[in-house]
Design goal:
The complex is a heterodimer of chains A (255) and B (155).
Chain A: H1 2-23, H2 40-71, H3 74-92, E1 102-110, E2 124-130, E3 142-143, H4 153-161, E4 165-167, H5 179-189, H6 193-199, E5 205-213, E6 216-225, H7 234-252
Antiparallel strand pairs in A: 1-2, 1-6, 2-3, 4-5, 5-6
Chain B: H1 2-8, E1 25-26, H2 29-32, E2 35-38, E3 41-44, E4 54-60, E5 65-71, E6 78-82, E7 86-91, E8 97-103, H3 104-110, H4 112-126, H5 137-146
Antiparallel strand pairs in B: 1-4, 2-3, 4-5, 5-8, 6-7, 7-8
Classes of the chains: A alpha+beta (255), B alpha+beta (155).
Amino acid sequence: MLYKGLAILQWGLALMIATISASLKAETTSLVNTGWQFLKGPVEGIQHTAWVTIPLLTIALGIAQIARNQIGPPWVWEHLHMLLDSFQELVFGDEAGDLHHHRATLFKRVSFGRGWRFWDWRGWLVPVERSGHATRRSKSTFRAPDDADRTEGVAGAAWAGKQTIYVENLPDISGNPSPQELEQYANATRSTTKWLTKHKPCSRSFCGIPFDVKGKRWGVVVLDSRNEQITQKAPLIDSFFKINGRYLSKLMERF
Amino acid sequence: MTKWFRQIRRVPATLYPDMPRNIWYKIDSGSLNQPTRKGEHVSFEFSPYDVPEAVAGELDEQRGTARVFFKYINDEPISRIDMNDFVAYVGKRSHRLHKMEMQADRVHQKGIVSVVSQAIDRLTKDRPSQAPPDRYRIAKEIVSGVGEKLLEKVA
């Protein structure tokens, strides 16, 4: 919606620049004593302010284009969501229970944090898209600085280690976990007990896969499941990337 | 009209202009990328993007060159590295090995496995800070695994 709105805004801005540029050539004196005399004042006003309006409108046009590039075309989002859904279905399709108990999320590495962490420019992994519909929105961001010891979450560990990481056999902390269980979960997932107490994640196993675009490490794909075991899914995960990895990378070149 | 546009559109330089008609050997990434377990953590040494999908070789007697090609999950910009007795084509950012060109005479004398192995050793030694996470170990293992049949032509 916003992408289309910005496109319409760009058309409007381009039309305004063209109109102002054309009006510079107009001889306002020729409008006197004609039926178009009422245009003399506005045209002269446009001519006098053209030196500032044309550069400002051109800058606005550029900003709108940058914003559109950042948002990305809707078809890219649709295809990305479709790919993550396929990944979720391929890896967890045969599992008992609801499919939304197992998710695939794509994180992108960015320089600045989101929200109140915007001032921190040491590097963050922010969610870009997630499979499914029920729990599609994710606000979890993880620290991913160059110093590997300071990374957060399974996503951060996979990013820093440049390797595929599986974490499994995690305790169930969705109810009323003991401090020991919280501590075990926090150590295994590189998170804090405070964060876990607040969010109470239901996932019992994770997999983080570093993700490349044009040969450069771009982000991490994270799978999380309510099942305790996930390493047995390694051949399926590997075959997904062999079949779709190239397409996924090509799609992300748009960002 | 569309046809004309297609023709004048700039085509990016491809890594395989002389794509070999030899056999592409599919690589079993599972055997090269072994898991390690530490408590709740199981980690694989590399990401799926670091392990080649397939390898192929080509012996061009007319030009006097032997080539080895590695195919990865995704494409990337390539840089050419000219060494004294071989040329390596590696990823600009990832430094992954995509192609090697060697003199056919040396390959006849020492065999492809030995020549590639020596070339990779030199590449690692001369460019220590510009190597992929595996430091070309995977490429070396793949070539020694396929062996001399790498340069066999399709019957």
